[in-house]
Each structure stands twice: as C-alpha cells, then as structure tokens.
Amino acid sequence: MQLAWIGLLDRDTGWIKPMSVHGPVSHLYEKLRVSIDPSIPEGRGFAAAAMREVRHFIVNDFLGEPRVAPWHERARASGIRSLATFPLQQDGRTVGVLNLHGSEVGFFTDDLVALLQEMALNISYALTNMQHDEERAAAEHALIESETRFRQLASTIPGAFWCALPGGGPITYVSPAYDALSGRSRAALFKDQSDWMNAIHPDDRATVESELRKARDGRLDHEFRIRRGDGQVRWVHNRSFPVHGDSGKITLITGLAEDITARKEDEELLQYMAHYDHLTGLPNRMLFYDRLQQALAHSRRDKRPAAVVFIDLDHFKRVNDTLGHAVGDELLQEVALRIKAALRGRDSVGRLSGDEFAVILTDLANAEDAAKVTRAIMTALERPFLLEGQEIFVSASAGITLYPTDGEDPDTLLKNADTAMYRAKEAGRNTYQFFKAEMNSRALERLSLDGSLRYALERKEFLLHFQPKVDLSSGAITGLEALLRWHHPERGLVSPAQFIPLLEDNGLIVPVGAWVLEEACRQVKAWSAMGIPVVPVAVNLSVHQLQRRDFARSVERTLREQSVDPRLIEMEITESMLARNADQALEILRQLKKCGIRLSVDDFGTGYSSLGYLKSFPLDALKIDRSFVRDIISDPDDAMITSAVISLAHSLRLKVVAEGVETQAQLSMLAAKGCDEMQGYFYARPMPAEDCAQLLRTPRELNLTGRMTDGARTLLLVDDHPAILSLMTRMLRHEGLRILTADCGEQALNVLAANQVSVVVADQRMPNMTGVELLSRVKGLYPDTVRVVMSAQVDVTTVTEAINQGAVYKVLAKPWDDGVLRATLRDAFSQQAQLESERRRGKPHIRAVVSDIREPRSGSR
C-alpha cells in the first residue's frame, strides 16, 4: 500500500481537505487539492465523484484511466498504480472520502474491496455517533474496528510503520516489519521504549537525539545507522508526520522507518570508484582537482606559495608494446609508490591519466623547494624496477608551476604545468622545467577568440546542431540534445572546447544560453508546423545561469512567448553544478520542474561530492559520462561503475542515458546492463536542423538484438593465426556448438559484448594483448564465462598467477590432442552450467584446473 488518506469536505469552499495522510509517499500528497466541483479539473476525479454519487469507485489501472489525468504525473513519480475511494457519511450526509492507493495494477481484489467497504461504513458510523453522547459506546467500537483495519493496512506497507504520542510520548503502535528491520522484537520495544534508541549506532545517537529535540512539530526526515540484534549494522531512513485533531492540536505522530543499506552501499562504492584510480589507489583527476582547490585556499589564507608538478613517464608506450599491458600496469603501481615515498608529509599526488601524475606542494619557502622535491621524485624513479624477473629503467619529464606567480586557480596551474612538462620533453626528457609566460602562445589565440565572441551573437554567427537520444528497448528517437556551434567568418566552425570555456569566463554564457533556449523553441515550433514528429529537446545549463534567481521566470516567459509545451524542453545540469550553492540550485530546479520541464544530470561520474544531493533534486534522468562508456567492453572497472550508476539511478526512479556510444558492442553491453537510452556517434553525429528533420521523418533502424544467443552452447576461439582458427572450427563442427572466432584480444572483447558466450579458449602468445590478459578482463566483465588458455610455450609463473586469481579455468598445451580438447570443452561447458546454476542460487564459484602440459601424442595437432 503506497498511500491512505481521509479527506473531509469544507462546504464553504467546496474543497476536500486531507485530514490524515499515511504511507511511504505521503509527503507528496500533504497539499493535495481535490474539489467536488465537476467544472474544474480537480473536481473530475473519483474522490469527488464518490461524494457526489454516494458510491465507491475502484480503479485498478490508475495510469490508464484518463479521468485522473491531472494526477498521472504525481502518481507515476510516487509509484501509485491503483485507487480505491469510498464516501464517508455523517447522519446521512456525505461529508468526506476514504482514499487508498496501491503500488500495483490490480491491487484491490474483491476481498480487499469488501474489507474496505466495511471499514468505510465503520468510519461513517463513528462520525455519526460522535455527535450523540448516548451512542458514544457504539462509536468507540466502530473506531476500534477502524483502527484494526488500519493496522492491517499498515502491516502491508514496506518498512516499519509506527505511531507515537506527541511531545516525546511513548510509541503506541509499530508494524510487524519492525522485527525484520531492527532484529529486535516489538514486545521488547513496548516493554522498554528505550530499546529503539539503544539500537541506534553509538556514533549516530547524539545526532538522532538532537533531531528528536528539534522536531517540535513532529516532523522528522533523517538517515542514521542501527546495530541489529544480530550485530549487523544497517542504514535506516526515518520520517514522521503529525496528525491534527479537530481543534488543530497534534494528537498523534506517525512515521515510517525503511532499510536503505543497499542504496548507501551503492553510493559509497560509486563514490570511491568515481574519485580514486583503480590501478594505483591514488586520487584521480577529479579528486586531485578538489584537493588542489583546498590547497590553494590554504595558501591564499596563509600567504604562502605553492606549486603544481606535472609528471609524465618517458617512452612508457614502449613498455606496454614490448612487455605487455600487465607489466605496464605493474610499473605504474610501482611508480606511484615511489612518488608518494619521495614526497613530504603535507604534499599530495594524483594520477590524472595513463602515465601522467601530478603533485601538489604546499608551504614552500621559495621556488627551489619545489625543484628539490621534483629532483627527489626523479631520483627515486631512476632506480631500476624489477618486474617479471628483469630490470626495467624508466625516466620522467616534469613541469612546475608556482602559485600565485603562474596562476591562481587549479585550471591555470595545471595547464601551465602541462605546458612546462612538454618543454622538458623537448629539452631531451629526464628533466624538469619551470613554466615561463612565453611558453603559452595560445594566450594570444584565446584573446583573439574572446574578442570575436563578443560580437558573435549580434552578428548571428551561432547555430544549433542536434544529436538524437534513442530508446534501447524500441530503437525510437526519444529526444534531441541541442548543441551550440560557432561559425566564425574566417575560421569556419570553431570547436566548442575552444569557445564555450571563453563564454563561461567572460559571462557571455548567460545571453548566449538564453538564445539557445529561444532557438531550440523556434526549431520545435518549425518542425511541428512542418508535420515532423516532435520529441523533447535538451539544452545545457551553465552554472552562471543557475546562479540567477530570476532564471526560472525567464524560462517560463520564453516558453510562453514561443508557445512551446514545457514538456518538450529538457535541461541538462552537470553533476558538479548541483554541489555549488545547492540550496539555491534546488529552489530553481523545483521551479523549472513545476513548469513541466524535464531535468537531467549530464556527465555523471565526473563531478565530486554530489551523490548526496541526487535524491533531493527533482531529476528525471541521469547521463553516464562518455569516459566510462568508452572502455566499457574492455575495462571491468568501467563496466562495474556503469552498472553501479544504472542501479543507483533506477533505485532513485531516474532514467539512464549513456553518452558517447560509438560501437555496436558498447550498445549491446549497455542494453544488457539495463541502460534506458543512448546517445552517440554510433547512431548519429550532431547535425544541422535540416538533416535532423529528415532523420525525424525517417529514423534509421538500430540493431537492438542485444547480446545474441540462439539457445546453443556458444564457444569463442581466439588466436592470431587464421589457419589455427579454421582447423579448430572444423575439428569441433560436430560437437553441437555455436562457434565464434576472433583474431586478437580487442576483437574478442567486441564479440563478447555482442554475444552470450559460455566458454572462451584463447591463445597465450598474441600481440598487443596476451591470452591471460584477455581472460583476466573477461573474468571481470563476464564472470559466468569459463576461460581456457592455450600455449605452445607456457610461462608457468604468469599462468599460475592467473589461475590463483581465478582468471583461468584450465591450461592446454599446443599443439593439442583432439580428444583432450573435446573432453576439456565438455568439462568447461558443464562447469559453466554449474556456475550459472550456483549464481542463480547466490553462490558463484569457479574451480581452476591445470591440465598436464606434456608432449603431444601421435595424431595430435
């Protein structure tokens, strides 16, 4: 049961006023407006009809009933799918209604309706008898029966539903779900009311007690941890609401406590993955940027210089190309450890990307202090690295920028340090360079562009391109993103990466952003007039626009002047924008939402410290940043982050859109993970309005087959020799298998993304990516797939480590024995079936086996 409320008629106004509202979504309906006047939309619903016609109504498909269309949006957001409404009478007069809302279609069965009819009669009987002292006993009996029915309904609400007397009074009722939530019994709670407070985690108890003292009006909404009777620590979301009597005084406090542990764990995992480098454990670019901002604030306050050192390994690509990515990854881990060891205790290091690291140095006396630490880092890296039994020598080039001499903000300091680092490479590598102003010739270029931008709007040099968003279930175009383009009279189309930061810096983003909205509205009207199917168009918001308190009113005015339905406009806000001035942003977004505009978070995963705000903002969709989508088919960490984002978004009832989808393999994997929509070059590049109109008229078909399987057992063979693939395929053609092939690790990952593969057999010695490297990735991406490696020259150490880590199920020698290979595959498919069965039972497990590596027998291949 999602919601139950009783409303009484105010005969002076004709409005039905909710007097008591209960349920998980009750906060959304406290200001519900229902009238008995059939001439207005609020009076055409079933509650009003029940009062006018004095009969009950049952609507077991709420969203499919046009008569309640004014309440569809609120019902969809709150999970309401069915309705039952019953008239309440007093002395033969209809005075109110009892309304109940279910979370499922068909919720109200005949038996439940009969129970509710009886309950409504009891309430009516109580309302009548409360006017007559001589019938008070009968009224009390009816109220007791009503309370019993209400307790029965409360027991169906997920979470622990409770009631308490106001003013810190005792708990008078708690639903049976309390036992499962707390691991304690209701009997113990009623015996000792402090039992619940004792269950609260000691670290949260003081905060909870403070919240209780502040909640004079009985309203609570807070999250905290409890320690269950079995010792488990769980997260709880507790909300409460006051119930007022006829005199207006609070007579009862009702509340709902829900277990939100799963959501909290998703948030914590996503928070770590989004802000720490999975390989080295160092802060990634986003977290490093945040720490740099804090360091600069301290330096500004203490009036002490600071420095940023940008470090790039020399010729790192050679290590990957010659020794493999696994060795390259191990080298990066060792480099990170040595850099950390060379720093002073107050310094900080992060991995920005690939082989690029950056260091924050604070409390410097002079520039030489920065040079001294940089030399210590480079000296530490000069010592040989012992990897895979051999010594590897690497060097690094570094660039140094000083605060405040070379810049006063993180972007400028990082940019200038990067410039100085490239000068160090040009100077012969294995050295460092301080930034010099003359290095940055791009400053003149930036100045020239800035001057031209100031006249671009007046000269009508801006235009919009549109990129479609596509539903991953139907393939239909569900929306467009309007993207700003600048056609310079001399340079032609200028990259948005060049001019949009300039618009942000010089403040022109506000008038240009207003033009973008107006132009998007004009285009929507033009397409509609041409008979072209119209879909919502999204425009990007700037932080400067969101800081203007009159922004929502200006948007309303534009939509009204352009005569555009607000539901055809969507606004995208970056994750980091939500964290800036959150209270003001929340108010503006609520105003936009009230207008009917859809709201989505853009570039999700690249911001910092905004996960806590997600549930507070009135959002409709979340867009996964392209940096996670790019390597989703080859990087288990990106795949895991994407899955966590999708799970978190869906738990918050948000639609998920993946940005930057460029291949069929990416699309298939995203669809398999439950992503709702995609946007990217794979379907269409951003295009002018004329080309977009043609696409809307005749949408291109999208391959939505997902990860293909025809029910057969599927085997993937991976070898860089076509002759071996052909030989193995012919040898296995009578085994009843669906056989797929790939000639390298990269191709194999694409095949896996598009097909449900049961077993993978990979050659160990392949260029770019060895068999063990490939199967290690397969383990992270597709843990149910059984993995077998084959090699003529087995590196026992590498293979043993892979087996110990669970990356490889079996190792076979090449050339192979046909009988041994067939038997191994039969075992592998049996193991895969067992693994899938155990996974369904919640017990994933795979056993690694090493076959004898021996000389092939005669007749082997």
Overview of the structural elements:
It is a single chain. This protein has 861 residues and is α/β, with parallel strands linked by helices. Helices cover 42% and strands 23% of the residues. Helix 9 packs antiparallel against helix 24 (636-651). The chain is globular, with a radius of gyration of 33 Å.
Describe what is shown at a glance.
The protein has 861 residues and is α/β, with parallel strands linked by helices. The chain is built from 31 helices and 33 strands.
Count of beta strands: 33
Q: Largest sheet, if any?
A: 8 strands, mixed, barrel
Weakly predicted, low-confidence segments: 844-861
Morphology call: globular
Overall pLDDT score: 86
Give the key terms.
single chain; 861 residues; alpha/beta; 8-stranded mixed beta barrel; 6-stranded antiparallel β-sheet; 31 helices; 42% helix; disordered C terminus
SSE blueprint and pairings:
Elements: E1 3-10, E2 15-22, E3 34-35, H1 46-53, E4 57-59, H2 72-78, E5 82-90, E6 93-102, H3 110-129, H4 136-154, E7 160-164, E8 171-174, H5 177-182, H6 186-191, H7 194-199, H8 202-214, E9 220-227, E10 233-244, E11 250-259, H9 261-275, H10 285-302, E12 306-313, H11 316-323, H12 325-342, E13 348-353, E14 356-361, H13 367-382, E15 385-387, E16 390-392, E17 396-403, H14 410-426, E18 432-434, H15 442-456, E19 462-471, E20 477-488, E21 492-494, H16 496-506, H17 509-529, E22 537-540, H18 543-546, H19 551-562, E23 569-574, H20 575-579, H21 582-595, E24 598-604, H22 611-614, E25 621-624, H23 626-629, H24 636-651, E26 655-659, H25 664-672, E27 677-679, E28 687-688, H26 689-697, E29 713-718, H27 722-731, E30 737-742, H28 745-754, E31 759-763, H29 771-781, E32 786-791, H30 796-804, E33 810-813, H31 818-840
Parallel strand pairs: 17-18, 20-22, 22-23, 23-24, 24-25, 25-26, 26-27, 29-30, 29-31, 31-32, 32-33
Antiparallel strand pairs: 1-2, 1-6, 2-3, 4-5, 5-6, 7-8, 7-11, 9-10, 10-11, 12-14, 12-17, 13-14, 15-16, 19-20, 19-27, 19-28, 20-21
